[in-house]
Amino acid sequence: MTARELLTELTKAQCLPSVEGEELVFSIAPPDELAAAVRVLQTGLRAVLTGKRWFGLSANGRGAGRPDGTLNPAGLLPRSARLATVEGDSQWDRLPLPVDKVTARLFTPEAKRAA
User: Fold this and answer.
1) What is the pTM of this model?
2) How far is the C-alpha of 99 from the C-alpha of 92, rounded, in Å?
3) What is the Rg, in whole angstroms, of the alpha carbon atoms belonging to the chain?
4) Highest taxon of the source (predicted)?
5) Sequence spans of domains, the chain
């Protein structure tokens, strides 16, 4: 699920997100089945809602996503992304490792290894 897809699903559930400063707020609590995605993709949602750029860093401090570190809200998070922020934010958010079914669907698939 991408940040844009998540926004669509939240809207369908009448859970309308908005941005106050650096905080994502909702008209009602997100549905349980979307709560984990909201925790991971909240910076992407804020980027879409504000029209600002979304950035990601890998564990080694290099840009995740495009060469300049920008992330695409219409794409899955790069598997290497460990930190994310919205242009102009004062801090970076730590992203979870894509280790369970819920978080794994938010990241690009793991590359298949040759046998």
Assistant:
1) 0.91
2) 21
3) 14
4) Bacteria
5) 3-104
**3-12 helix and 32-50 helix, angle to the nearest 10 degrees:** 120
Q: Residues 6 or more apart from 64 whose CB is under 8 A from it?
A: 56, 57, 58, 71, 77, 78, 80, 81, 82
Average pLDDT along the chain: 92
Which letter does DSSP use for residue 58 in this model?
E
Distance between CA 10 and CA 50 in Å, rounded? 16
Higher pLDDT, 16 or 101: 16
Q: What is the per-residue pLDDT for 115?
A: 52
* Residue predicted with more confidence, 80 or 110: 80
Contact present, 63 and 77 (Cβ < 8 Å): no
The structure tokens listed for 110 are 């793991």
pLDDT at 104: 87
Gap between the Cα atoms of 6 and 69, Å rounded: 21
Query: What residue has token string 């995740």?
Result: 64
Q: And the tokens for 42?
A: 């909240």
